[in-house]
Amino acid sequence: MPDDLLGNVQDTKLATALSERYLAYALSTIMARSLPDVRDGLKPVHRRLIFAMRQLRLDPGSGFKKCARVVGDVMGKFHPHGDMSIYEALVRLAQDFASRYPLIEGQGNFGNIDGDNAAAMRYTESRLTEVAAALLEGIDEDAVDFRPTYDNEDTEPVVLPGAFPNLLANGAAGIAVGMATSIPPHNAAELCAAAIHLIRHPEADTAALLDFVQGPDFPTGGELVEDRATLLSAYETGRGSLRVRARWSRSDLKGGAWQIVVTEIPYQVQKSRLIEQVAQLMAERKLPLLGDIRDESTERVRIVLEPKSRTVDPDMLMASLFRATAFEQRFSMNMNVLDADRTPRVMGLREMLRAWLDHRHEVLERRSRHRLAAIARRLEILEGYLAVFLNLDEVIRIIRTEDEPKPALIAAFTLTDTQAEAILNMRLRSLRKLEEMEIRKEHKALTAERKALDAMLADPAKRWARIETEIEATAKTFGGGPGARRTTISGAVPVTEVAVEALVEREPLTVILSEKGWIRALKGHAVAEAELKFKEGDRLKALLRCSSLDRVTVFATNGRVYSLRAADLPRGRGDGQAIRLMVDLGNEDEVAALFIADPEARYLVAGTDGRGFIIAGAELGAEKRTGKQILTVRPGQEAMLCRKVAGDHLAVIGQNRKLLVFPLEQVPEMARGAGVILQKYKDGGLADAKAFTLASGLSWRLGDKQRTETRLAEWLGARGQAGRLPPTGFPRSGTFGPPDDDAG
């Protein structure tokens, strides 16, 4: 290696070298790729596309050219990056569902809202739109600065003149190193109105500007459901999160049936993926209110939603879809841009409009000075022409006789070099009298224009009035009239509470519990007990009809209650699963009762020792596997009964076949404990208990028949007494028979 190169070697820490290079890369990504300029709302690739298309004369009134030609020019002259990245940027500028005001008019397949890609660039064609022409207006009049291209062979604009408020009108999105931007599109007419208000009232705050800018106006429409306070906070700080919903309506059909038709979906949501998402959730039974979904879209969106039944509430159906699918989407607003000094920062609505207006003011001044210079050059030439017509014969003589007529003309008529050159270049046909009149007329008009421009440059008020006129013309050209807004601003909508039951499909189930503690669930309620099969030596203990949304309450002989989700119980025609594997039952404990607890009801809890109390149904829930102790059981005794009570009296019968009836109010209501003595026994314990209304009589089952005893005076007494033998015809089993409900 040569000595001179060895002398330039420097020792640098790897961390320092890496950090310097990464910082350079980060700055390049931020300033030259990802963040838009606040003045024209464009990233470099977009600006170079539009400028290259202008050089190709792809004006709105001209013909189309292949996109491959455009991409090739951009890549070769201005943007040394991959052709696909350039083409993707071009395609996005041409998609009317991606850009609120497309800057490029495409011919061919430029993709669709379903997410399908555009055709290859060799098949598609493009040209600029009127909006892009407005952004370029005045670019040849020294309105903006130019800089050398990457190879120093040409120049490109640093920023476009931007007669259209492109940044807020079309929005922007990008991810840089350590920062990102996400700006929603807006309505151009509203932006222009807000800008004019800001010109007239320079101290106007964001709240005043929101009287004109109602909120984002997405190209795909939809409904914005945020209140003014949320919008004000987002537009003041430049950051926020806005909810956008699909637009839908109910369509009535024959016979009382109906369907929902969705005509607009949230911005940046691919329709095909949205439908796939809904179909997947339907397959997973997470949208039980929805029966079917169909895509009937043509060039316009039309998604048809059929309810599961006619009784479904449309608002509830859509609320479940808004909660679970992309029919409602949050747009994260982060208005991070490059300011006029090329510094990235987050701006609010007022700052952005102010930056655009200041840019338009600078463009107006530069164009005016450029025009004044052009007028001065033209007036200089016209004054030379007028000198010719005043001394036409002498000018002709000098030209005919002098070998060097130019110095002679300058000396004879005190002309400038430019005037003398223009006179010598005049055609003979221009020496007619009519031409003289046209020159005088043009000279007078240019003199008046120069005077007006000088006056405008000297008076800021006149400059701002001129800008206001230009903005009014922009609003008239691109605003689209009063019905041009696509996104409806609905304000904060009331929250439609969707019950958990509405989000899970309700399936009828029959829970089967065997004597040996095996539990399972069968689909449906038409389950015949005679058809049930069990392991050898086992038989049916309890059969409970419920739904997959219910929680099954298990009351055990240890006095504890447990809760099981019916949907979690083992399915099928097999033996099921041992209930001990699902709840923590002791070795000697068994299931005493299986039922669906009603939180609004009251229940009688009792043990074999004849003690018990009333407990509220809401206290019978137990989320833990270990359950909850409600009845304290004495050694040698068991909990045996947990039954819903309704009426004014309680009938209890012991294993000694003694019946006692007493007022139900004598039994206290408790949350847990051992309870009070319901009936006194010398031998045995409690056999059964039943609450009833005394006026209606006490009923019991005897075989397939039901008997009712209304003359109960001899069995009436007080709680804790022994009672008397039951009426004639009372069952030999010593119980009242199966309860009227599924509790106990």
Automatic annotation (TrEMBL):
Active-site residues (renumbered): Y123 (o-(5'-phospho-dna)-tyrosine intermediate)
GO biological-process terms attached to the record: chromosome segregation; DNA topological change
Keyword annotations of the record: Cell membrane, DNA-binding, Isomerase, Membrane, Topoisomerase
Function as written in the Swiss-Prot or TrEMBL entry: Topoisomerase IV is essential for chromosome segregation. It relaxes supercoiled DNA. Performs the decatenation events required during the replication of a circular DNA molecule.
Catalysed conversion reaction: ATP-dependent breakage, passage and rejoining of double-stranded DNA
Region named Disordered: 717-744
UniProt similarity note: Belongs to the type II topoisomerase GyrA/ParC subunit family. ParC type 1 subfamily.
Gene: parC
Localization: Cell membrane
Site location (Interaction with DNA): K43, H79, H81
Membrane topology field: Peripheral membrane protein
Official protein name in the record: DNA topoisomerase 4 subunit A
Pfam families found in the cross-reference section: DNA_gyraseA_C, DNA_topoisoIV
